[in-house]
């Protein structure tokens, strides 16, 4: 089974607070974005990668793709101010109907077996996302007062990749743009045009590196992988 992937990597990493894109940070001498690209380079099901970057990082990213010999990177595209704009720019580069994945550059530890499971489900259902069961109890609060406690057994922490039939995702993005809607993930745009989205269970190592503490978790995950 084949797919193409859009990797948004054009953020500023503000919550990391280092003044440059967090994806340039090295873990054991390798930049975070190189771990992410490596997973897809090594997945035989992946046909091509569209990497979305901001202009400040373009030289760095081009050099990285060259030096690590990421042959599947077919385009390095300029991103936008929001993640949603960046993904949309990436999607515009894929023309032929296919299964398209969207995967955060900031999630370097996704496993090929989970990607492939996701793609299999998408080939039948057109939309599927990777997720893990929520470990904490989640409550909704307003002005510091609890309003509601959710039934944890129904809650999922949503990750990427998120996978879709290309035409469906493009339709969802076009509608969102028309309505001025911004979602926090790709699937929410598809949900709002009335299409079902399947959940595929992944694993807890597929973290999004967001704040400084996540770098400790990332080092521990790499150590765990190397010891296997
Ligand atoms: N991203 C992007 N374009 C943007 C914003 C984010 O391509 N305008 C990418 C990031 O590079 C990252 C992914 O989307 O790979 C998830 O975003 P997030 O973790 O929020 O990264 P940043 O936006 O860089 O971090 P922050 O929100 O702390 O500034
Ligand atoms: Mg962000």
UniProtKB/TrEMBL annotation:
- Extract the coiled-coil ranges from the record: none
Nucleotidyltransferase listed as a keyword: yes
Residues annotated as site: Transition state stabilizer: 15, 22
Enzyme Commission number: 2.7.7.60
Q: What terms describe the molecular function in GO for this protein?
A: 2-C-methyl-D-erythritol 4-phosphate cytidylyltransferase activity
Q: Where is this site: Positions MEP for the nucleophilic attack?
A: 152, 208
**What's one Pfam family here?**
IspD
The main enzyme category here is transferase
Q: Which PANTHER family match?
A: 2-C-METHYL-D-ERYTHRITOL 4-PHOSPHATE CYTIDYLYLTRANSFERASE, CHLOROPLASTIC
- Stated name of the protein: 2-C-methyl-D-erythritol 4-phosphate cytidylyltransferase
């Amino acid at each position: 089974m084949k797919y193409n992937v859009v990797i948004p990597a054009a953020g500023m990493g503000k919550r990391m607070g280092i003044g440059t894109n967090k994806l340039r940070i090295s873990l054991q001498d390798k930049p975070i974005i190189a771990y992410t690209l490596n997973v897809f380079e090594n997945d035989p099901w992946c046909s091509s990668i569209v990497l979305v970057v901001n202009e400040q990082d373009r030289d760095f990213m081009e050099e990285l793709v060259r030096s690590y010999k990421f042959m599947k990177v077919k385009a390095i595209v300029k991103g936008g101010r929001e993640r949603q704009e960046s993904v949309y720019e990436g999607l515009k580069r894929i023309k032929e109907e296919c299964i398209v994945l969207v995967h955060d550059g900031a999630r370097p530890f996704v496993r090929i077996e989970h990607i492939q499971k996701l793609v299999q489900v998408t080939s039948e259902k057109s939309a599927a996302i990777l997720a893990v069961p929520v470990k904490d109890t989640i409550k909704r609060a307003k002005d510091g007062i609890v309003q509601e406690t959710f039934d944890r057994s129904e809650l999922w922490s949503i990750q990427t990749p998120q996978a879709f039939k290309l035409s469906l995702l493009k339709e969802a993005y076009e509608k969102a743009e028309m309505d001025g809607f911004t979602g926090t993930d790709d699937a929410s745009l598809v949900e709002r045009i009335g299409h079902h989205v399947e959940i595929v269970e992944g694993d807890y190592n597929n973290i999004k590196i967001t704040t400084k503490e996540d770098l400790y978790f990332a080092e521990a995950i790499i150590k765990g992988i190397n010891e296997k």
